[in-house]
Design brief:
Elements: E1 2-4, H1 5-8, H2 18-27, E2 31-38, E3 45-55, E4 63-68, E5 73-78, E6 88-92, E7 107-109, E8 112-114, E9 117-118, H3 146-149, E10 155-161, H4 172-183, E11 196-200, E12 206-209, E13 217-224, H5 233-241, H6 249-261, E14 266-269, E15 277-282, E16 288-290, E17 296-298, E18 304-307, E19 312-315, E20 319-320, E21 333-339, H7 342-352, H8 357-364, H9 370-386, E22 390-393, E23 396-398, E24 406-409, H10 412-419, H11 425-433, E25 438-440, E26 443-446, H12 456-467, H13 488-502, E27 506-507, E28 513-514, H14 516-523, E29 528-529, E30 540-541, H15 545-557, E31 564-574, E32 584-594, H16 611-624, E33 631-634, E34 640-649, E35 652-660, H17 662-668, E36 674-680, H18 681-687, E37 703-712, H19 717-726, E38 732-741, E39 750-759, H20 768-786, E40 789-792
Parallel strand pairs: 11-22, 12-15, 27-31
Antiparallel strand pairs: 1-10, 2-10, 3-4, 3-6, 4-5, 6-9, 7-8, 13-21, 13-22, 13-23, 14-21, 15-18, 16-17, 18-19, 19-20, 24-26, 25-26, 28-30, 29-30, 31-32, 32-36, 33-34, 34-35, 35-36, 37-39, 37-40, 38-39
Helix pairs in contact: 5-6, 6-9, 7-8, 10-12
């Protein structure tokens, strides 16, 4: 943001050296990156008149100009495309030294001598770029020093680095407020005084707001019978001093007020507004609009549009439309002053790729209250004075969703604790009132031009920077405890990561941005889109961690790495059903294994990984986090459909594992079988045993019994174990299934499941009779619940 020292003097009685002021601004948080001096009182730079222009005899793009500089006439060679006979121009005579580091000397150019230089604004240090020489007003005296002829006062431009949380710093009045607080000077706001027509604004324009969340306020006024023409010299100089070019008086006034107050305005040609109506609505997906710069834009759903009764005429808060532009034939102005939601502007900007002075301020947060009507009144006043306009009576101000100032407690003790100071509440209030924060009854009312102030710590920062950081004594001790308590959830995820590595699985990281169309096709679910993707293959937020791992397997397979055991802990993003809501995020643990079980060494068996490898990994992991009472049930989804199980705990599915579908093998071009597991980390954290209780190892021996049970083919082992667990057999400490048999000795449709029961007491050595009674109870329970056939081994 460029701020003019002379412009600041319109609001403050400044006498301080500009370089000293720059240092003071930097100390209160407005870093001045550069102070640029702009002046014209260079010796030997005068006003000249071009008497004639001839082609250079030896160069096609150069001209030989005869220039009158008052006491002599000079022949000067010029290469500017806009040089013409009769023009009044700045001339640097021999011995002149220009701010661009050029000293003017007699020189021959292509065999012809040149005795000076006709200057552009860039060469005189007034502009960063120029298209040609500077054409001066015709009423200037020939031969007079340029600075005195133009009555040009030297200026200093502060190039400020405004942080994103300080939108109030994007204006001259905003910086004047800060300078006034630093130097304890009153700020004089420009007075607004203009006469109005008898015709009410509400009789000639109406305003409807259909999206108050995106546009909480919209105010309109009509200025009739304006005369489009050049702006007054002072206004042109103000704009040019900060790098903005003059266009015409109406556009210049809206730009001037923007730079003065920080509140964007837009001027429409009122006669191009159909139906005498403004309708503020959000765009539909796929609507098309052409902006002032002549560029067409395809809009997404939710961009704010300013419309008349028939068509859109502007992108709200971003840029006006070509179909309502103010031109030379314009006579009536519809002057807009509105407030747009920063969130909406930010999303629209990222999608459209448009940047403007207005959008820069709206996306950071303009002032929805005093700023709206003050800026509009200021521009109306200037249009009446300098465009001979006639203002309609009153303003149509539609404000359906009022935004109120924030009240923050003036907590003296907390502020002093944060700063390490001993400042009284009265002194704090005095400091804050310098920047228009009103303190009363122990509270501070924060005006809406400061959206960054929300809590006591923010007030502490304001007090510190205005009190002076150099006035706060350094301390070796702090009253604030800086010990950070460990986050139990983060510690748990670190533990999960360590367990996986301990199980011999390698961690990988993949991008959350994926190919939206591919993931939707595979998962069958909508993917949350990225509005401004960096490429077509990264236009959505992934809804599955498994597909990312499959992509990594494919990448490695293409490089002849076929034996892999990998895992990733990362977030997935589920579409909430509306783009007005953020995606639902979940942290997942995903595991993928494929290839040989062991490395290809001379002693390895070179067997491929199978279902029981992934099952063993899952069971080992669950055991490590003491999730002992989990069970497995049949399951399938878009990833797995055979040799697959879901993990159930407390009647909730916390994950699944199994063999990847054949169709996914083909899509990712991996030949070896792939086995996948995916678990919800939050649910694992909720259910995992946080505190382990240890018991003494029994000193008495255990007794084991084996039992082979014939059951229906579709009976799950988990069902058997559940029935056994519910039987509450005394001294039964472990049941392990160790064999499943189908063969000649087993009837068709049946299978034999062999279980090993371990009995042990912590009080005594068990007898055969006690174990036999326990087995009889188990057999009875199994027979009663499952009608099984069995035999004791």
């Amino acid at each position: 943001m460029k701020i003019s020292y002379n412009w600041l003097k319109d609001y403050l009685s400044l006498t301080i050296d500009p370089n000293i002021l720059a240092d003071k601004l930097s100390l209160v948080g407005f870093e001045v990156e550069e102070v640029i001096e702009k002046r014209l009182d260079y010796p030997h730079v005068v006003v000249g008149k071009i008497l004639s222009v001839q082609n250079h005899p030896n160069a096609d793009k150069l001209t030989l100009c005869h220039v009158d500089v008052g006491n002599e006439k000079l022949e000067i060679i010029c290469g500017a495309p806009n040089v013409r006979s009769g023009q009044i121009v700045p001339v640097a005579k021999i011995c002149a030294e220009l701010p661009i580091g050029l000293k003017i000397k007699k020189t021959k150019i292509r065999g012809v001598q040149s005795n000076g230089m006709i200057c552009s604004e860039q060469e005189l240090g007034l502009a960063e770029a120029s298209d040609g020489i500077w054409i001066l007003p015709e009423n200037l005296k020939i031969g007079q020093p340029l600075a005195s002829a133009l009555n040009f006062e030297a200026d200093y431009i502060f190039d400020l680095a405004i942080t994103p949380n300080r939108p109030d710093g994007l204006s001259h009045l905003g910086i004047a407020r800060e300078v006034g607080a630093i130097l304890e000077l009153p700020v004089q706001h420009p007075e607004i005084q203009f006469s109005e027509l008898d015709e009410n604004t509400a009789d000639i324009i109406s305003v409807e707001i259909h999206c108050p969340e995106s546009c909480p306020r919209y105010a309109a006024r009509i200025i009739k019978d304006v005369r489009i023409g050049p702006s007054p010299t002072w206004l042109i100089r103000r704009l040019e001093s900060v790098g903005m070019r003059s266009i015409n008086n109406i556009v210049d006034i809206t730009n001037f007020v923007l730079l003065e107050t920080g509140h964007p305005l837009h001027a429409f040609d009122y006669d191009l507004i159909e139906g005498q109506k403004i309708v503020v609505r959000e765009s539909l997906d796929g609507e098309y609009f052409t902006t002032l710069d002549g560029k067409g834009h395809e809009l997404r759903e939710g961009t704010v549009l300013i419309c008349d009764a028939e068509k859109p005429v502007a992108l709200g808060g971003i840029m006006g439309g070509l179909n309502s532009e103010v031109g030379e034939q314009t006579s009536n102005i519809l002057l807009e002053s509105a407030y747009f939601s920063p969130e909406n502007i930010m999303k629209s900007l990222r999608y459209l790729g448009i940047a403007s002075e207005a959008s820069q301020r709206f996306e950071r947060g303009a002032d929805p209250n005093d700023g709206v009507l003050y800026a509009q009144g200021r521009a109306t006043d200037l249009m009446v004075k300098f465009a001979q306009g006639k203002a309609s009576r009153g303003v149509v101000d539609n404000y359906p969703r009022e935004i109120h100032p924030v009240n923050i407690p003036l907590d003296e003790s907390k502020i002093n604790l944060l700063l390490g100071t001993n400042i009284s509440a009265e002194e704090m209030a005095e400091i804050l009132e310098k920047i228009e924060l009103k303190a009363s009854d122990g509270n501070v009312t924060v005006p809406t031009f400061r959206p960054d102030l929300q809590r006591v710590a923010d007030l502490a920062e304001e007090v510190a920077r205005l009190y002076g950081l150099d006035n706060i004594a350094a301390s070796n001790k702090s009253a604030i405890p800086y010990d950070i308590l460990p986050n139990k959830y983060d510690l748990f995820t670190d533990k999960v990561r360590d367990i996986m590595v301990g199980l011999g699985i390698q961690e990988v990281f993949s991008s959350s941005m994926i190919n939206k169309e591919q993931f939707e096709r595979i998962t069958g679910e909508k993917v949350y889109p990225i509005l401004n993707p960096i490429s077509r293959d990264m236009n959505g937020m992934r809804n599955s961690l498994v597909l990312s791992l499959l992509g990594i397997l494919q990448w490695n397979k293409n490089r002849q790495i076929n034996d892999l055991k990998i895992f990733e802990i990362n977030r997935v993003f589920y579409h909430p059903g509306s783009l007005k809501k953020l995606p639902t995020e979940e942290l997942k643990l995903a595991i993928a294994i494929t290839g040989n079980r062991e490395p290809e060494l001379w002693y390895s068996n070179r067997q491929l990984i199978d279902f029981y490898d992934i099952k063993g990994i899952v069971e080992g992991f669950l055991n490590k986090i003491s999730l002992d009472n989990s069970s497995f049930i049949s399951y399938d989804n878009f990833v797995v459909n055979e040799q697959s199980l879901a993990i159930r705990y407390n009647d909730k599915i916390i994950g699944y594992f199994g063999k990847v579908r054949e169709e996914l093998h083909h899509q990712f071009d991996v030949q070896n079988p792939i086995f996948i597991a995916e678990l919800n980390v939050q649910m694992l954290f909720d259910f995992a045993v946080k505190e382990k209780k240890y018991k003494q190892v029994p000193k008495f021996p255990w007794i084991q019994r084996d039992l082979a049970i014939l059951v229906d083919e579709n009976t799950e082992v988990d069902r058997l174990l559940s029935v056994i667990d519910q039987s509450n057999v005394k001294n039964l400490c472990e049941v392990i299934p160790f064999d499943i048999y189908r063969g000649k000795q087993v009837d068709s449709g049946k299978k034999s499941i062999a279980l090993r029961f371990t009995f042990q007491s912590s009080e005594k050595t068990l007898t055969e009779e006690e174990v036999n009674l326990a087995m009889e109870k188990l057999i009875g329970t199994l027979n009663e619940n499952l009608q099984i056939k069995f035999r004791i081994q």
